[in-house]
Design goal:
Blueprint lengths: L1 E5 L3 H12 L3 E5 L3 H8 L10 H10 L3 E4 L2 H5 L4 E4 L14 H13 L4 E5 L7 H15 L6 E5 L9 H6 L4 E4 L3 H11 L9 E4 L1 H32 L3 H9 L20 H14 L5 H13 L2 H9 L8 E5 L14 H11 L3 E5 L4 H8 L4 E2 L3 H4 L5 E4 L11 H7 L4 E4 L6 H7 L2 E4 L3
Parallel strand pairs: 1-2, 1-4, 2-3, 4-5, 5-6, 7-8, 9-10, 9-12, 10-11, 12-13, 13-14
Helix pairs in contact: 1-3, 5-6, 9-11, 9-12, 11-12
The structure holds 1,4-dihydronicotinamide adenine dinucleotide and uridine-5'-diphosphate-glucuronic acid (UGA).
Uridine-5'-diphosphate-glucuronic acid (UGA) binds next to α9.
């Protein structure tokens, strides 16, 4: 089977490579020429565990190709997945210009049946717009060609993308025709041979499912951050509370970790977009507005602890930051809480030394040389008054505290991800504070 994937970002590249891995003939398309030239050589533009080997293997097997021209491969393929970006518009709603541009190119160039699948996260009604744009282009060309549109939102997590895609909890597919349903079943069957978990539904429900899923996960995080903040005030330990409530199977253990707020390219943008969709339909998403508000405040949690620790006198303090990415196992810094923290620290006159195993280049690209980029985690804490743990990378979990203690000017650790043990840290001689304890 031959398919095209348009957009070779986190989602498109993983989708294309995973389909190639199960034997599909895949052409990945992107308008970014540099990206495509690198990919042709097997150099991948993102940090994602296991992806590079898989890309190289499938290029070698000639199942994975890259091009900047959708036109050139369009009439060779039956199914086109669109995985281009849907960034937030100025008012928070999803910007559909890339999605509709892809639809227009398809309408202008297709000569026989196509199934056009939207994988990007898009608001309800987008598939209808995609269909209308393609039809408009076909009408201009005076052609009467049958085509289907489908919605197949993606639920992979960065850092775990390949395994999420290869063995998903479920695949959600919105379709309008039997032909489309058959094609999508055929494509996903190899991933789910012994336990077929493709949930077929109407297209608006599939589009809505994606926003509801991300919003539910964001809600759990903000709820736990609220609980954590209250735990601190009343003398409870949120880690205990988390384990106490998480063992109720109705609640479950996942996504209950308090921290310094959720970031990334999706939770912030998708929560905003759903609030906007409701607004456009005369409804108010009260819970989600609170989720957003709690998250914005939570990004300041470590800074507030720092201010409290020094009774407001933080000017000139040396602060070491471990972690920059919005979560471990990725170099992605979109909406990363670290950026908000760095801003606050610099504005207050602190000196900031940072270290992240994967995001140093990305951070330089975003903020330049306004902070010191340490060569490793130990270099970052040199003469530091305070160490702030921002992203819970594995290599930060069991550091050599004896070395760190000697290196730091003052022994203060503020843990934004609750990965250290308070008692142990105090025994080592550190002043230690985390979230919700
Ligand atoms: N990043 C993630 O973990 C997840 C993202 N999503 C959704 O998937 C969509 C894509 O997200 P990412 O992969 O993170 O975006 P990205 O920004 O990493 O990649 C998008 C790619 O599309 C390309 N592009 C834009 N217009 C194009 C066009 N007309 N033709 C060909 N290529 C074009 C861009 O050059 C870019 O390489 C978004 O809607 C996002 O919300 C869904 C699940 C997970
Ligand atoms: O639509 C998307 O793009 C994706 O968004 C999230 O995936 P991702 O953003 O890659 O990362 P997560 O692991 O969900 O983490 C998001 C943020 O929440 C924070 N988080 C997560 C879990 C938790 O318990 N506590 C918490 O603060 C993380 O630190 C991170 O900043 C969803 O988990 C994916 O299912 C979805 O496909």
């Amino acid at each position: 089977m031959k398919i095209a994937i348009v957009g070779t970002g986190y989602v498109g590249l993983v989708t294309g490579t995973c389909f190639a891995e199960i034997g599909v003939d895949v052409t990945c398309v992107d308008t970014n020429n540099d990206k495509i030239e690198s990919l042709k050589k097997g150099i991948i533009p993102i940090y994602e565990n296991g992806l590079e080997e898989m890309v190289l293997r499938n290029i070698k097997a000639k199942r994975l190709k890259f091009t900047t021209s959708l036109e050139s491969c369009l009439n060779d393929v039956e199914v086109i997945f669109s995985a281009v970006g849907t960034p937030p518009d100025e008012d928070g709603s999803a910007d559909l210009s890339y999605v509709l541009e892809v639809a227009r190119t398809i309408g202008r160039n297709m000569n026989q049946y196509k199934l056009i699948v939207t994988k990007s996260t898009v608001p309800v009604g987008t598939a209808r717009k995609v269909r209308a744009v393609i039809q408009e282009e076909l009408d201009k060309r005076g052609l009467n060609i049958t085509f289907d549109v489908a919605s197949n939102p993606e639920f992979l997590k960065e850092g775990n993308a390949i395994s999420d895609f290869m063995s998903p909890d479920r695949v959600v597919v919105g379709v309008e025709s039997e032909r489309a349903e058959k094609l999508m079943s055929k494509l996903y069957k190899p991933f789910l041979l012994n336990n077929f978990r493709v949930i077929f539904m109407d297209i608006p429900s599939a589009e809505m499912t994606k926003y509801a899923a991300n919003s539910m996960l964001a809600t759990r995080i903000s709820f736990m951050n609220d609980i954590a903040n209250l735990c601190e005030l009343v003398g409870a330990d949120v880690n205990m509370v988390r384990s106490g409530i998480g063992s109720d199977t109705r609640i479950g253990r996942k996504f209950l970790y308090p921290g310094i707020g959720y970031g990334g390219s999706c939770f912030p943008k998708d929560v905003k977009a759903l609030i906007k969709t409701a607004e456009q339909n005369g409804y108010t998403m009260r819970v989600l507005s609170a989720v957003e508000e709690v998250n914005e405040l939570q990004k300041g949690a470590l800074f507030d602890k720092l201010v409290k620790q020094f009774n407001g006198n933080i000017e000139g303090k040396n602060i070491a930051l471990w972690g920059l990415a919005f979560k471990p196992e990725t170099d992605d810094m979109r909406e990363a809480p670290s950026l908000v923290l760095i801003d606050k620290l610099l504005e207050a006159g602190c000196h900031v030394r940072v270290y992240d195993p994967a995001s140093m280049e990305e951070c330089k690209r975003r903020i330049g040389d306004i902070v010191y980029y340490a060569c490793d985690m130990y270099d970052a804490v040199l003469d530091a008054d305070v160490l702030m743990l921002v992203t819970e990378w594995k290599e930060f979990r069991l550091p050599s505290w004896a070395v760190i203690k000697k290196t730091m000017a003052q022994q203060i650790v503020l843990d934004g991800r609750n990965i250290y043990d308070k008692k142990e840290m105090e025994e080592f001689g550190f002043i230690y504070s985390c979230i919700g304890k």
